[in-house]
Design a protein that fits this description.
The chain has helices at residues 7-21, 36-47, 61-75, 99-103, 126-135, 169-174, 204-210, 215-225, 239-251, 265-276, 310-318, 338-341, and strands spanning 26-29, 54-58, 80-82, 94-98, 114-118, 139-144, 162-165, 181-185, 197-198, 201-202, 232-235, 256-258, 282-285, 300-303, 330-334, 369-372, 375-378. The chain is an alpha/beta fold.
Length: 383
């Protein structure tokens, strides 16, 4: 029963337990694909030996289902799942709950226990803080791949007081826990000159104007660069843009679907299942794929959405860096300037819980590119 932790995961669990023993509130940082869900399941298992309740919170249904499945597999006991419309037993030893649902039921929430916050970079938001305050946990631990607020600032004041950093992406790639990757700066580049910023990222309304007429070139670049036809997640700037991209891929004879948060849950689940099973080659979206989507089958990320957000970039790239049978290297295709403005997945970044701006200085840490007759030549990430 259960799964064996990897060495770096066990180290993080040990350090987390030590921090909790002295009443600290650790924030555990492990790259996307590094196994946060396994860490949560192990912390829940250890907490079962006490009389404390475990309450794992997250912001998306897909994440809640993953945490629930991992805990059932690891401990042999299914947690109480708290989703919209559910009638949970609030006294159950383990709750896995969505923050939006809890925020609507503050009067019913149990108090005390161990609070485990997944995607804890959201802990600074008003709804998450209201839920945390209502739960009044005895102990708190957060987990994230990107300890950065949406505006690029650190997570100081968001409930954690000590940062526990796990092994960086480079080490995980070198030891086979994440896939190495090849990155191409697409010839079909989106011009972001003059685009204003909003909440630390490009204004999506203005970006929508810059991508008009590019869908055909996006498909052509994918056909040329993705020679092995790796299952692909293509990210647009809006729902309408994702649908436009999907239509262009289908017109080229490529099995493609667009997915967005307004879809019925059953329909979205069916599309994800078809993608995992290989019945869909390209999955187009704008936001529902940035966090919590576990699809190791995906081997290519096509970013048709320029971003200045290191958090968003790292989360999106992490969707395709999970190892999978037959996947030797992942492929990243960037249609914007992120590859030269932000730290790529192979590069390390400084991490801080302080209120200051995160270290996102522009530098090319994983790619050398030159143009030759309209062709983009790419080298693999430097060691």
């Amino acid at each position: 029963m259960g799964f064996a932790l990897r060495s770096y995961q066990q180290d993080l669990v040990d350090r987390s337990c030590q921090a909790l023993k002295v009443r600290q509130a650790p924030l555990v940082v492990v790259p996307t694909g590094g196994g946060k869900t396994a860490l949560i399941a192990e912390m829940v298992r250890l907490n079962r030996s006490t009389d404390r309740q475990s309450i794992a919170i997250c912001h998306r249904r897909e994440i809640a289902l993953q945490i629930t499945a991992a805990n059932k597999h690891h401990t042999g006991q299914a947690p109480e799942l708290v989703l919209s419309g559910s009638r949970p037993d609030w006294s159950a030893p383990v709750l896995v709950a969505m923050v939006p649902t809890l925020a609507r039921r503050l009067a019913h929430l149990p108090q005390g226990g161990l609070l485990l916050a997944d995607e804890a970079h959201h802990m600074g938001s008003t709804s998450w803080q209201r839920v945390r305050d209502a739960l009044a946990p005895d102990l708190t631990i957060g987990f994230t791949a990107t300890p950065i607020r949406p505006d690029g600032r650190g997570l100081g004041g968001a409930g954690s007081n000590v940062l526990l950093a796990g092994s960086p992406p480079k080490w995980l790639m070198e030891h086979g826990f994440l896939c190495p990757y090849d990155l191409y700066a697409s010839p079909a580049q989106i011009n972001v000159a003059g685009v204003s910023t909003k909440l630390g990222d490009y204004d999506p309304t203005q970006l929508q104007e810059r991508v008009v007429g590019l869908a055909g070139a996006v498909v052509e670049d994918w056909q040329r660069l993705n020679v092995n036809r790796l299952p692909t997640i293509t990210v647009g700037v809006s729902v309408a843009h994702a649908q436009e991209l999907a239509a262009s891929f289908r017109a080229a004879g490529i099995t493609t679907m667009a997915v967005d948060g307004s879809m019925a849950t059953a329909e979205r689940d069916r599309i994800f299942a078809d993608f995992r099973a290989g019945r869909i080659t390209v999955l187009c979206a704008c936001v529902v794929v940035d966090e919590g989507l576990d699809v190791p089958e995906a081997g290519c990320l096509q970013l048709v959405r320029p971003t200045r957000s290191l958090r968003l970039l790292r989360q999106l790239q992490g969707r395709v860096l999970r190892p999978s049978p037959g996947k030797e290297r992942a492929l990243l295709i960037d249609h914007g300037p992120s590859w030269k403005e932000l730290h790529m997945s192979y590069g390390e970044i400084s991490r801080s819980l302080g209120p200051g701006q995160m270290d996102i200085a522009k530098r090319n840490c994983s790619l050398f590119v030159r143009g030759a007759g309209g062709r983009i030549n790419s080298l693999r990430p430097a060691a």
